[in-house]
């Protein structure tokens, strides 16, 4: 099973609807909204509790941001050091400019082992490049072993959250998916399966165990790569990652180049801010660190695919490069009022929520309807910056990306918004035109108030083309007197 397409950064997203269109459909799904409200509320509360225990939380945020900036400002040097140290430890390092190169490298490595299947650790990078789909086309089965990823894969679905990919599903839905799909690809779920979390986890564990013991090749990502030792780090909560990283004979890790940290010491800060911001825990249940292969312990071959796929382009953008600080904690999703109501699928990417709204169009460009709409998928409330453990100023970056979208799509037939802004610019460019508009509005306001029953102050809708604006909000009745007219009439308020 390869999962649902149209989620990566490889081009198949071009047919997806814009964010407002997708979000409108999601808003009509009451079950989805209930699932999201419950899950994000729970995670927010857990995070707030464990962050509140620390007196130096802001100092940790500043340190984490400084560490990531130091890594990005000398990224070429740190990547070269990482390659040298990982190679010295016995790993083989590969470089991939884009998704196609990365997928081809992985396919060739799997074929070299004579394998027809791989087990996978949860990995945003492999979802980004749509590795599962590429492996399927090559006749190789990829089995997701993270519980949430397993739910998504068995349900022929696609992730909707960075930390909890199946956040849009409830327990009853998971039970139905397990009963219907597990038997088609391995050990079936027990007939008496209930929606109790313990029973669901047990069914997943039994289903995956035979795959863990059988697989010769595993594929992982990495949360961090340590330049001065050539080490990779994976943090997880279930133990499935540890199984993938230790049991198969060959391990292939696909790692975004921005994951590099300069030194081992830097990891200490990251392992404080990441679990608290993501799962609301003081420490991850499983933190796996490996440096090449080791005799008699773990895989015999370790391959590391360092992935660019648009990241150097993001790094070149002075106003947008801070997005590469992201450590994929998902804290910004859990506090975002837009994400909570629209859900992750509305973003058309493996990176949903506020960080996805700035990172995805930087990686993919703004040619498609979905990508040029993403920077507008925000109220700019600022909650995302307040919780970000590496202090990414997402609201400012969203404004930057909006400017970029406008600049890149100038010319041609103007949109309704462009026409409205042009008219507004003309009206506001001369006080005499503005005064004339105010007089017309005041006259209209008097007429409307005399006709509206009970002196209502709001209009339910406006005629076309303003109906597009009033379709999602009430329009106020124009005032019967502008501030300028009142000032002139009263002599500056001295009636």
UniProtKB/TrEMBL annotation:
Domain 4Fe-4S ferredoxin-type per the UniProt entry, residue ranges: 314-338
Record key words, sorted: 4Fe-4S, Electron transport, Iron, Iron-sulfur, Metal-binding, Repeat, Transport
Region (Disordered): 468-495
Repeat found in the keyword field: yes
Tree of life domain: Bacteria
InterPro entries (alphabetical): 4Fe4S_Fe-S-bd, 4Fe4S_Fe_S_CS, FTHF_cligase-like_sf, Helical_ferredxn, LUD_dom, LutB/LldF, NagB/RpiA_transferase-like
Pfam families in the cross-refs: Fer4_8, LUD_dom
GO MF annotation list: 4 iron, 4 sulfur cluster binding; metal ion binding
Single GO biological process annotation from the record: lactate metabolic process
Protein name, UniProt field: (4Fe-4S) protein
Gene: lutB
């Amino acid at each position: 099973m390869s999962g649902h397409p149209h989620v990566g950064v490889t081009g198949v997203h071009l047919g997806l609807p814009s964010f407002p269109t997708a979000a409108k459909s999601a808003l009509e799904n009451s079950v989805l909204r209930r699932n999201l409200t419950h899950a994000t509320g729970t995670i927010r509360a857990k995070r707030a509790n464990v962050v509140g225990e620390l007196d130096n939380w802001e100092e940790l945020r500043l340190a984490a941001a400084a560490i990531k900036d130091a890594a990005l400002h000398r990224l070429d040097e740190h990547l070269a050091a990482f390659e040298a140290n990982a190679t010295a430890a016995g790993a083989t390092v590969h470089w991939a400019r884009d998704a196609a190169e990365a997928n081809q490298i992985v396919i060739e490595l799997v074929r070299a082992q004579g394998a027809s299947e791989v087990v996978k650790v949860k990995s945003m990078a492999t979802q980004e490049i749509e590795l599962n789909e590429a492996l399927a086309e090559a006749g190789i089965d990829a089995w997701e072993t993270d519980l949430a990823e397993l739910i998504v894969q068995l349900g022929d679905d696609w992730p909707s959250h960075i930390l909890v990919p199946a956040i849009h599903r409830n327990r009853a839905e998971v039970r139905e998916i397990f009963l219907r799909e597990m038997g088609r690809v391995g050990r079936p779920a027990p007939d008496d399966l209930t929606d109790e979390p313990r029973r669901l986890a047990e069914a997943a564990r039994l289903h995956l165990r035979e795959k863990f013991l059988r697989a010769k090749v595993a594929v992982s990502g990495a949360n961090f790569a340590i330049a001065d030792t050539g080490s990779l780090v994976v943090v997880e909560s279930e133990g499935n990652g540890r199984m993938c990283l230790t049991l198969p004979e060959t391990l292939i890790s696909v790692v975004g180049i921005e994951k590099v940290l300069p030194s081992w010491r830097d990891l200490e800060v990251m392992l404080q801010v990441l679990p608290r911001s993501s799962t609301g825990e003081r420490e991850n249940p499983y933190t796996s660190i490996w440096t090449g292969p080791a005799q008699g312990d773990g895989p015999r071959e370790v391959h590391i695919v360092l992935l660019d796929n648009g990241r150097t382009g993001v790094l070149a953008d002075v106003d947008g490069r801070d997005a590469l600080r992201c450590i994929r904690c998902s804290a910004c999703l859990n506090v975002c009022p837009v994400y909570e109501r629209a859900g992750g699928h509305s973003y058309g990417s493996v990176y949903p929520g506020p960080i996805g709204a700035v990172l995805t169009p930087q990686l993919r460009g703004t040619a498609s309807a979905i990508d040029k709409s993403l920077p507008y998928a925000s109220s700019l409330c600022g909650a995302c910056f307040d919780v970000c453990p590496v202090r990414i100023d997402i609201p400012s970056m969203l404004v930057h990306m909006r400017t970029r979208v406008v600049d890149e799509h100038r010319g041609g037939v103007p949109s309704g918004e462009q026409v409205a802004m042009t008219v507004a610019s003309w009206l506001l460019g001369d006080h005499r035109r503005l005064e004339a508009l105010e007089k017309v509005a005041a006259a209209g306001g008097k007429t409307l108030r005399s006709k509206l029953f009970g002196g209502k102050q709001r209009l339910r809708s406006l005629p076309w083309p303003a109906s597009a604006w009033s379709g999602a909000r009430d329009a106020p009745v124009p005032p019967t007197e502008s501030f300028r007219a009142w000032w002139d009439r009263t002599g500056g308020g001295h009636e």
